[in-house]
Design brief:
heterodimer, A: 246 residues, alpha/beta, seven-stranded parallel beta sheet, 9 helices, B: 78 residues, mainly alpha, 4 helices, 58% helix, oxidoreductase (chain A), fatty acid metabolism (chain A), SDR (chain A)
Chain lengths: 246, 78
């Protein structure tokens, strides 16, 4: 099941914990994976660790021109059209609304939401021709529940859900699915650094009693990317240990 | 009938799966040939590929019939 042999996937934010796990998982299932991110050296390191069937296409998703150029660069690097797009890259500029600068808002919306729109617009052409495609957005529990200090981030992550539903309806009869995975609290370098007491308090809100792992997210992405999930579209899979049951 | 017209009609027949006899020059993609809005976007993509040209969005919006497509492509080639 979930064999991705012969498919080509583009994963943005592939240098991060969740992005790297997604890239590794899709690669393990047979896909050729194009890793995108801002740090060229880290991308190349990750690519070298994966071995063959891997390409690198660095891109600053906050830069509109760079985003426009990424689809062609990714397809040239892979030598094939992109079948699976994973819009995973995300940044935070947390601040209480009353102190939030326009720039904090604009950057988060640009990287977390607008880049996904631009990449989808460019890559859906090839998917329509093939009558097969998968577009997967990595949202967040925060997009559904809100979180103080994250008005910009929550707006972008909720925006991704509406965007995906609209696009899903447009391209459903072309064999293309558009879905979202919404992670809860995931163990990353950031949560590792939290004091023990704070971690325990955090876990009280998670019925599963543990933080999620990047692999928990990657498994959902793999499912949505697979042939088997062809009838699932416009959906949001919440991967949060029961923290919010939506 | 010109070569351009033949090629345009062939693409329309293939993409929309309609009978060749229905693809007259006056036929409207949406009203007569059963295309939806996404089909028209795909047709424009197919024309671009077949004739190695670029059809800007504002021009694409005006391509509503088979004749519109033929005329636009001819204007680009001329």
């Amino acid at each position: 099941m979930f064999d991705l042999s012969g498919k080509t996937a583009l994963v943005t934010g592939a240098t991060g914990g969740i992005g790297a796990a997604i890239a590794e998982t899709l690669h393990r299932q047979g896909a050729h994976v194009v890793l995108s991110g801002t740090r060229q050296a880290v991308l190349e390191e990750k690519a070298a660790a994966l071995g063959d069937r891997v390409s690198v296409a660095a891109c600053n998703l906050g830069d509109a021109e760079a985003v426009e150029a990424l689809p062609k660069a990714a397809e040239a690097a892979a030598g094939a059209p992109i079948d699976i797009l994973v819009n995973n890259a995300g940044i935070t500029r947390d601040q209480l609304l009353m102190r939030m600068k326009d720039d904090d808002w604009d950057q988060v919306i640009a990287v977390n939401l607008t880049s996904g729109f631009r990449l989808s617009r460019a890559l859906v052409r090839g998917m329509m021709k093939k009558r097969w495609g998968r577009i997967i957005g990595i949202s967040s529990i925060v997009g559904a529940t809100g979180n103080p200090g994250q008005a910009n981030y929550a707006a972008a992550k909720a925006g991704m859900v509406g965007f995906s539903k609209a696009l899903a309806a447009e391209v459903a009869n072309r064999g293309i699915t558009v879905n979202v995975v919404a992670p809860g609290f995931i163990a990353t370098a950031m949560t590792d650094a939290l004091p023990e007491a704070q971690k325990e308090k955090l876990l009280e809100s998670v019925p599963a009693g543990r933080l999620g792992t990047p692999e928990d997210i990657a498994a959902s992405v793999l499912y949505l990317a697979s042939e088997e999930a062809g009838y699932v579209t416009g959906a949001t899979i919440h991967v949060n240990g029961g923290m919010a049951m939506l | 009938m010109s070569d351009v017209a033949e090629r345009v009609k062939k693409i329309v027949v293939e993409h929309l799966g309609v009978d060749e006899s229905k693809v007259t020059e006056d036929a409207s993609f949406i009203d007569d040939l059963g295309a939806d809005s996404l089909d028209t976007v795909e047709l424009v993509m197919a024309f671009e590929e077949e004739f190695s040209c670029e059809i800007p969005d504002d021009a694409a919006e005006k391509i509503l019939t088979v004749k519109d497509a033929i005329d636009f492509i001819k204007s680009q080639e001329g």
